[in-house]
Amino acid sequence: MQNIETAQGQSAVVRQRRLSSLNRVLKYVLVRGLTLLVTVTIGVYLAILIANGGGYVDEMRKGQIRESVSIQMAGDPENAFLTIQERRALEESLVNTQIQQLGLHRPFAIRSFEYLWNGLTLDLGRADYLLSDSGSRQVRSILGERLGPTLLLMATGQLLLFFSSLALGLFLSRRYGSFLDKFIIAMAPTSSAPAWFYGMFLILVFAAVLGWLPFGGMVGAPPPESSFWRFMSILKHMILPVTALLVSSVFSGAYSRRTFFLIYSSEDYVEMAKAKGLSDREIERRYVLRPTLPTIITSFMLTIIGLWTGAIVFETVFNWPGIGRLTQQAINMFDTPVIVATTVIYAYLLAVTVFLLDIIYALVDPRVKIGGGGTKS
Q1: What angle do CA 369, 375, 377 make, to 5 degrees?
Q2: Which end of the chain is more exposed for a tag (fewer CB within 10 A), N or C?
């Protein structure tokens, strides 16, 4: 009888602990989610203020409307019989009508919060100036057309860069002090230059001087009709930008990962594992790679974000029709809806990534407890 009561007591304690853990996790998810939502909201609203110049762009649009109406009236022969007062009254009426249709007659402070709500709810609306290839002004269509090229280029370049630098860093940690190790260390400072900087040199050498590769773009002109040759043309156009991405960061990436691996490979528990006779592969997998896994995962997740958002200057240099180049065009044309849309997408991707990283850390590192307020020893 006493054993049954003891078992029931232990079962109740286990249930209470599970309930307490569940409540702690739910509370953490709620607080963390709200915190990230507030952060995203502030970031998007600042982007709206900057993109619109605090209302300056709206004044520019009003001026463009007035100029357009004036030109339209000047080209209409029926207006030649109107008096100056009648022409001014008609022009003012037409201008006010268009301004009201666009909602520009309302204060910018009110409309900025409407932009904020539309952005947060992914109601991306219509672009002010930019068009999709099909002639649509829908921001969703414009972004959809540019997303494919960005994913193609950045996924090829960034993922190849990530895994090659990871493998090279692990290789160098096994051969500390070798010629290759010293060479990578010596070349690491070259990564201070961005990818577009190396891209211009690659274009100068292989496109302008040698003529082996195209200057930019995604496909040749005119585009090949055959699917196979179109695919080959895309691959040919990707050689220079992918090479620029690799050259710009592979040395610093390999050096940083090699340093992490060396730090953990010199720990006492690694020496103890060697004394136990474990193989080098097993030691690397269990005692070197696993402690560095959170850092590797963080780098990988941030790389994934870069696949979706592209790179403004990089895509512009190579004339690549992706999200980055679209953002540059939107900035130059003061196309607020497109700028806000790209900012919202990046903010959401970053917030979701940060949220998932906290959960992933708890899965890969038993010292981390979700909502536990820190680590346990």
Answers
A1: 120
A2: C
What value does the mean pLDDT of the chain take? Answer: 79
Indicate the fold that domain 145-334 takes in CATH.
MetI-like fold (1.10.3720)
Phi first, then psi, for residue 216 (nearest 5°) are 180, -165
Give the separation between CA 288 and CA 265, rounded to whole angstroms. 6
Token digits of residue 340:
């806000």
Which pLDDT score, from 0 to 100, does residue 370 have?
56
Q: Using one digit for the tens of pLDDT, what is the confidence trace for 144-173?
A: 888 888 888 888 888 888 889 888 888 888
CA distances from 137 to 125, 197, 320, 375 (A): 8, 33, 21, 50
- Name the packing angle between helices 2-52 and 108-120 (round to 10°): 140
- How many angstroms separate the CA atoms of 139 and 145, rounded? 10
Query: Considering the entire predicted model, what is its pTM?
Result: 0.71
Tokens standing for residue 26 = 């739910």
Backbone angles phi, psi at 230, to 5 degrees: -65, -40
Q: How many residues comprise the chain?
A: 377
Angle between helical axes of 227-265 and 139-174 (0-180°, round to 10): 40
Query: Which structure tokens are listed for 187?
Result: 């070349």
The number of beta carbons lying within 10 Å of the beta carbon of residue 13 is 10
Q: Distances in Å between the alpha carbon of 208 and those of 153, 211, 217, 317?
A: 22, 6, 15, 14
Q: How far apart are CA 209 and CA 202, in angstroms?
A: 10
Residue spans of the domains in the chain: they are 12-108, 145-334
CA dihedral 271, 275, 279, 283 (to 10 degrees): -30
101: buried, middle or exposed (CB in 10 Å: 19+, 13-18, 0-12)?
A: exposed
Helices (H), the chain: 2-52, 56-74, 84-101, 108-120, 139-174, 179-187, 195-202, 227-265, 268-275, 280-283, 290-309, 312-317, 323-332, 336-364
How far apart are the C-alpha atoms of 4 and 210, rounded to whole Å?
86
Q: What is the mean predicted confidence (pLDDT) over 299-307?
A: 76
Beta bridge partners of 138: 126
Residues in CB range of 337: below 8 A, 6 or more apart: 115, 124, 125, 126, 127, 128, 139
Task: For 344, list phi and psi in degrees, rounded to 5.
Answer: -65, -45
Q: Cα–chain-centroid distance for residue 353? A: 11
